[in-house]
Amino acid sequence: MFQFSARLAGAAIALTLAAAPSLAQQLELKLMAPAAPGGGWDQTARSMQQALVASGVARSVQVTNVPGAGGSVGIAQFVNGAKGDGNQMMVNGFVMVGALAMNKSPVTLEQVTPIARLTEEIQVMVVPANSPIKTAQDLAAAVKADIAKVTFAGGSAGGVDHVMAALFAGAVGADAKKINYIPFSGGGESLAAILGGKVTAGISGLSEYEGQIKSGKLRAIGVTSEKRIAGSDIPTFKEQGIDLVIANWRSVVAPPGITPEQRKTLTDAVEKMVKSDAWKEILKQKGWEDAYLGGDAFADFLKKETVRVTDVLKSVGLVKS
Amino acid sequence: MDTFAALAHGMAVAVQPMNLLYALIGVFLGTAVGVLPGIGPALTVALLLPVTYKLDPGGSLIMFAGIYYGGMYGGSTTAILINTPGESASMATALEGNKMAKAGRGGPALATSAIGSFVAGTIATIGLAFLAPWLVDFAVRFGPEDYFALMCVAFVTVSATFGDSPIRGLTSLFIGLTLGLVGIDKLTGQARLAFGVPELLDGVEVTTLAVGLFALGEALYVASRRHHGEEKLEPVRGSLWMTKEDWKRSWKPWLRGTMFGFPIGALPAGGAEIPTFLSYSTEKRLTKHPEEFGKGAIEGVAGPEAANNASAAGTLVPLLTLGLPTSATAAMMLAGFQQYGLNPGPLLFAERPDLVWGLIASLFIANCMLLVLNLPLVGLWVRLLAIPQPWLYAGILVFATMGTIAAKPSVVELSMLAGFGVLGFLMRRFDFPIAPVVVGLILGPIAESQLRRALAISLGDPMTLLQSPISATLLGIALLALLAPFVLKGLGRFKANED
Asked: Phi and psi for B120 in degrees, rounded to 5?
């Protein structure tokens, strides 16, 4: 029933965007979002559906949701059920790397065929407006003085926020094992804890806290991008002398066991979609950074990121080595 | 611009014919999906997002708000008629509502829930318009220790759902608490009681448990009793509409339910379930007809229904003022805002007053539409009960299974549903109350993670629970609620001795 409605929605988009060019090919794709409707992966999948159809890259795209355990349930089903199928893809991202390691998943990201990294979201560290901490160095000093007394609020255990807190502690020379990280379910609850002054610092995706930062209720003490974001007056950690670069990336992968031709077709299709106006429009609306990285370069990136994240999770004791 | 002028301006936006149409589509869709267990308003909004992308922002947000309110209405219909809560917030409604329906009083039950929802929704929307900035300051000060204290109050008061025997009630509660442990521990990321089954890592879904225990358990129980002489169900006994007496017994619970629902819904981790339980137990204590509770007391329907609708309006407080989504549907509405480049938050009221006030005004309109849509349907709905039992229960089984599969397409989920169905049957057979199981599953994990968060923040010092004034007050209330019955009983004995 759900798949049926997803198809309906797809059809409705095709109708709404009647401008779809006539060069529509025979591609009929199935796209899995290994999460419940509404989250980042689901929105990425549905945005892809919209852009793939609107740009004429695919004739139809059907989105299915397989929620559970940071994508562990979805990827298991994807690897086993879609093996060798060149018309299926799955959205994933940073969080899945950690989730698979923590859940001791029998299926790993090495088994899937990497297609492309699509977007990334820069992370931000904030403190309440009335906090004595003004810069990332102030926080670093507090962390070095007594790491247990500095409380970080962020999203789920082992997610990108948690990894970032650990990396921050490591980068300023403290023992990451001792960080006092308090996971909240969803940005809403953690924001309340930060605004209410219950914790020392908060960590989240930049877009999520942008309104609060602009209105002056939160002070941003650092962003995790390589260079300062254009038009923003928030300093990066790097320019404050702290080596902390991390982004919450989202990507798309294909099943294992597909032929090189099938892989090329999918890689080309995604590349074409990324370059389409429809996709650019969506990125602008959602405030996602374009972080396209295709083919083998993405495969390399995925491998390196997996090692980095797993190491951090081992260091904070979430993954037993 | 003061609030009245802003609201009047919002009304002008909301009554534009196109926006009225969107509101109508919204409430209709919302009612429809609310009736189906498993398919909630969140999923509906998610599916509609890409479709509405070309519409104007005001119109589609109005439609989403209609879906949200409609979902809250629809969930209660199935809870009352076939004991299948469409979403977990309707669970408390099922307790008395279904008993009323079986006694031929389905009409008044549906009516009190529709009118109660209307009253609560309207009052809460007024609250949203006038109190939002003040309330949100309060909500943000609510820390983990305060949530834990609130959970303590909830735990103490849910004993009202226990039925007659506290031991049986506690047994049920602990089954629920144990089920609540299943899955990844939120604070350490480690799996508990998942036995290596990946589908269990996210824990037990509340709707799966509720539908299994209530609907499936009931169907099995009814089937097992068929040879013991068939229970005759009369769809209508007495008046189809609420009598004067019904009105008299309903209006206070409506207001009290609203008082629970709106502020708790506005808390970032409040939710819709807790106020419904609190309202149910309050009504049970205050009623003049305690003998009717457990057999179909109208107060037990009126209060929780008002509470769950008021909490829906409450959820919009942090969403509009802070950009904080505190429920799945609110998160989807946030995505809806973002798709138009709008960021709900402290600046939204200043930047796009037309949109915000248009949305608030359309909530009033959605509420009126829901009442108009639902009241005439009452007569039609109760006819459902005239369907011969084997057909009706077969239908319920199909319905329940379909809803579960739609929400989570997996064999494990389906097996759990069946397992909970058998559990529900056995509990009915041996006279254990089933509501505390669901209560335990909902409250247990919240209480646990909030307590652990509070302790992590205070570096392990339990005194944090007493240092926060909110927490200390709530714990005091919990203690009072726990001791009061014993003290009163003691006094009663004392008096009896004197005579």
From this structure: -65, -45
